[in-house]
Amino acid sequence: MAGKQERNRRRPQEGRRSAMVVTKLQEHIPVDEVFENLQCSHRGLTSKQVQQRLQIFGLNKLEEKEESKFRKFLGFMWNPLSWVMEEAAIMTIALANGGGKPPDWQDFLGIIFLLLINSSISFVEENNAGNAAAALMAGLALKGKVLRDGRWTEEEAAALVPGDIISIKLGDIIPADARLLDGDPLKIDQARPSALTGESLPATKGPGDGVYSGSTVKQGEIKAVVIATGVHTSFGKAALLVDSTNQVGHFQQASLTSLGYFHRSDTVIALNHRYIDLFIIIRLTQVLTAIGNFCICSILVGICIEIIVMYPIQNRAYRPGIDNLLVLLIGGIPIAMPTVLSVTMAIGSHRLSQQGAIIKRMTAIEDMAGMDVLCSAKTGTLTLNKLSVDKNLIEVHLNTQFLKKGVTKDQVILMAARASRIENQDAIDTAIVGMLGHPKEARAGVQEAHFLPFNPTDKRTALTYIDGDGKMYRVSKGAPEQILNLAHNKSEIAQKVHAVIDKFAGRGLRSLGVAYQDVPDGRKESRGSPWHFVALLPLFDPPRHNSAETIQRALNLGVNVKMITGDQLAIGKETGRRLGMGTNMYPSSSLLGQNKDESIADLPVDDLIEKADGFAGVFPEHKYEIVKRLQARKHICGMTGDGVNDAPALKKADIGIAVADATDAARSASDVILTEPGLSVIISAVLTSRAIFQRMKNYTIYAVSITIRIVLGFMLLALIWEFDFPPFMVLIITILNEGTILTTSKDRVKPSPLPDSWKLAEIFTSGVRIFHVKSLEKTAQDDFQMLASAVFLQVSTISQALIFVTRSRSWSFVERPNFLLVFAFLVAQLIATLIAVYADWAFTSINGIGWGWAGIVWLYNLVFYFPLDIIKFFTRYALSGQAWDLVIEQRIAFTRKKQFGQQERELNAPRTLHGLQPADAKLFPEKAGYNKLNQMAEEAKQRADIARYVATCKEFHEWDAFHDLSYFLTVMNLTMCLLMMVHTLKGHVETVVKPKGLDIDTIQQSYTV
User: Fold this and answer.
1) Are residues 703 and 761 in the same domain?
2) Rounded to an integer, what is the distance from CA 175 to the centroid of its chain?
3) Domain endpoint, select from 491, 508, 540
4) Which of 313-327, 614-628, 750-764, 974-988 has the lowest mean pLDDT?
5) How many domains does the chain have?
6) Element holding 397 (H helix, E strand)
7) Is 206 in the same domain as 125?
8) pLDDT tens for residues 108-158?
9) Does residue 408 surpass a pLDDT of 80?
10) Nearest Cα to 57, choosing from 128, 147, 158?
11) Residue 297, phi then psi, degrees to nearest 5
12) Which of 506, 521, 540 is the last residue of a domain?
């Protein structure tokens, strides 16, 4: 029995070893032999064969090597801030052993306990963030068209096996090593083992050639047979080779040392074989490095001063001097900084995902908070991308040859439908085919010989077909200029065609050209007879209902939205006029300094790009140039995209945003992936990012101020009053602060109304000036042990009260904090007060002060708390000069826009308001309360829920049976959520309709679910 079990256990391993040999042989042999060796056919595999091969070859993904959780936990104790605390722990048992006293074991254990708390929280939060991210990205897993059981289905790439027949097209990332079958050549960015070094090998591949996992399809559409999956692919083998070396280079070691705060948070989750890498990277930026260095240097300066004064000058005893040094080390280090910032980022990214924006690069949150220019595509983002064709407006070209044949508008529609893919989800194809009585009419009575798919270069599709008489014809549809270039009589008809295009564009309609030719020799490869321009079809893409409002909201938030479209200039201007974003748009040729209007002839290209409302006729290379020049002007630039050729611009932009239904290549190059369409989700994400950034910024100001307070305050106590404060009590203060500080990651904050960024001058100056150097006079209490308790309570209370000062940019009592923060503060101070009142700890030399003195300390802190707001205002006013105006307006104070700031926007108000508001209208709302901003975030979350509901129902509709209870419950849950939203909407309608005396029953009949 044991021998049989061992054979069964070894059988899959032996099968996989044989699989490596089999797949390796498929790269160079003829395709027919590939089918023979893999025991498959052009009809694809059956479900039973797929299950058998999954047992042999495994899933099509790389196995992740899990790091020891214990090592991962210890790693959170290995960063510069922890090093300082660890040095303090060593001091408590090594250097503090003198003066007739034993080692300071209680301080040693307290420091270790503090480090364990921080590491535990960071460990748990990173695991939670990783699990949440993996769950989110699983919904965006790479999928592809696979031929199984004789029909095409959409399957996850992880389920592919050798022998599968797949279809790959423009924008796809090839999910496995494969051999191409019959079809047009592909243009790909070939990814082989060199992909690990970032190299790209452009290549053209035809039938019979091999393509490799991870390659990006730049042009073409073709079928292929899978020959290798998972670790057996070229990329998988290279990854295993790199993993086997398991060495850390000198640069990486240096990086881990210098960027020590967050190097344990650099996590990479690879899903579905290099489809998309989710980088959860919480990096230590130069700003945070400077903050950490500032705190450490401040402590070192204080220590040096204490050593010089206490020993050579004051001749203090050895052990009390060491205790004073420990006070500075333990109390001055912002040990919670890595934990607070990582938790804030993780919670924020989860919040963004609920609103429909999945963050691939965590530091994109910081960039999005500072974004001041958004280059947005028109189609699908500003508009619905739900095209319709007005049959009455179709312009048939009156060519005498076609006039004899009697070309009608119905025939034009049929020609355009024949040049479409019936099964495509493309908006144009859907609109054209939808005009037929039934989609099958597009191929009725004809035999498809060859189909030319759309590509960004040619911007057209074409079908070569054989009709019922056995004659071959070719029809093409696409961009009017491209179709016009095909026509044999272009020079004769160009003027009339352009006139029709301009007429359509003036009404906001896109144009679609249709051309036709004979193929007399009956060969699909033949060039055919001359092309004839047949007609122009008008396409209407309605703007989204909330685009105009969202654009105005973006302007109010300091984000300049520029329309980047490939449509004609007139269409761009008309859309801009309808959306209220301006008509100050230019053709893409102006980016190269060509074809400028006389009014802008002398305007440099950089100024033109910065001041324009948008550009039309744009190609992908133009998008890259726009981003590059905006970044040269110090703008934080966001770019939306969905196609494979948008990848360079998305990669170049500070925030690359892949819109809903973007190609795999665009998603791979982006920093943010949207799960619902429209501009509103981007603006909601900007607000949420600013709130996240505000929390981090508030904490850094607090960290600097508390470091200065501890260092300077206790140094003065030790040197002027020669008061030796027990280091154990500072440790208690630090531990109590830990719990309160962590709640700031969920605090209620008011996002900045303008793009925000790290400002070292503001952080350092605010931190230095806000600290409150006050201590009780020595004469207030002659008992040093009771005085230590009083100082402990005073420092503990005012230190945590600083959180409320630094968290708000207005009066600290105006902006209501989160309940959790208030609760944590009250609990911590209750504990601190009880310790100060009742503690009688001989080991740390403190005695309780009673409730009377505790009340005096609380009253003392309350009196000196209010001046902190005034100090804050004076500090910020000195930095920005605008603090009081913003405080009076009860907006967020002290935020300065980088380059294209408030003054520039006020000067350009006539352009940005576009006549939709009176000249005296304010660019920013008087009040933007937390509730309003939170409502906007909730609306974005609801839109994301509806989008997921629609996608889930669509997938659910395709099922044959209810074979998954959890999936069924998910659908029902989402259905209930949608019905609740509709009921809420109905309530809003009734509150408006009834007071006006309208018939609510008639209106209710219009409800549609």
Assistant:
1) yes
2) 23
3) 540
4) 974-988
5) 5
6) none
7) no
8) 888 888 888 888 887 887 777 666 666 666 666 778 889 998 888 888 888
9) yes
10) 158
11) -65, -40
12) 540
C-alpha span between 523 and 535 (Å, rounded): 26
Tokens (6 digits) for 568: 């004609």
227, 27 in Cβ contact below 8 A?
yes
Burial class of residue 467, CB neighbours in 10 A (0-12, 13-18, 19+): exposed
The mean pLDDT value for 400-427 works out to 76
CB 447 within 8 A of CB 465: yes
3-state secondary structure 737-765: HHHHHHHHHHCCCCCCCCCCCCCHHHHHH
Q: What is the pLDDT of residue 270?
A: 33
> Looking at the structure, do residues 37 and 53 belong to the same domain, yes or no?
yes
Does the residue 140 lie in any domain? no
573 part of a folded domain: yes
Give the CATH number of the domain where residue 506 resides: 3.40.1110.10
Most confident of 12-26, 119-133, 797-811: 797-811
Statement to judge: residues 714 and 826 lie in one domain:
yes
Q: What is the token pair recorded at 209?
A: 């050639």
Amino acid letter, residue 483: I
Question: For position 138, what pLDDT does the model report?
Answer: 64
What Å distances lie between residue 285 and 44, 65, 352, CA to CA? 51, 28, 22
Query: In 3-state terms, what secondary structure has residue 147?
Result: strand
Task: Please give the share of the chain, as a percent, with pLDDT higher than 90.
Answer: 7
Residues 433 and 445 placed together within one structural domain of the fold: yes
Same domain, 650 and 575: yes
Residues 462, 527, single domain; the answer is yes
**Same domain for 520 and 421?**
yes
> What is the average pLDDT score of the chain?
73
DSSP tag of 69: H
Q: Compute the distance between CA of residue 814 and CA of residue 168 in angstroms, rounded to an integer.
A: 58
Pull the structure tokens for residue 961.
Answer: 């049976």
Q: How far is CA 130 from the centre of its chain?
A: 15
Q: Kindly indicate the confidence band of residue 514, based on its pLDDT and cuts at 50, 70 and 90.
A: very high
Q: Give the C-alpha separation, 30 to 33, whole Å.
A: 5
- Within a domain: 896: no
- For residue 573, give the CATH number of its domain: 3.40.50.1000
Tokens representing 994 are: 């009834």
* Of the candidate ranges 547-561, 797-811, 953-967, the one whose mean pLDDT is the lowest: 953-967
Q: Show the beta-strand stretches assigned E in 541-618.
A: 560-564, 585-587, 614-616
Give the other-Cβ count within 10 Å of 720's Cβ: 11
* Amino acid at position 533, single letter: F
Q: Is the pLDDT of residue 963 over 80?
A: no
CATH number at residue 194: 2.70.150.10
Alpha carbons within 13 angstroms on the beta-carbon side of residue 521 total 7
The residue written with tokens 């295993």 in the block is: 240
- Over residues 618-639, mean pLDDT: 88
User: Does residue 910 lie within any of the structural domains?
Assistant: no
CATH number at residue 807: 1.20.1110.10
pLDDT classification of 464: cutoffs 50, 70, 90:
very high
Q: Which domain covers residue 845, as residue numbers? A: 76-133+283-349+686-880
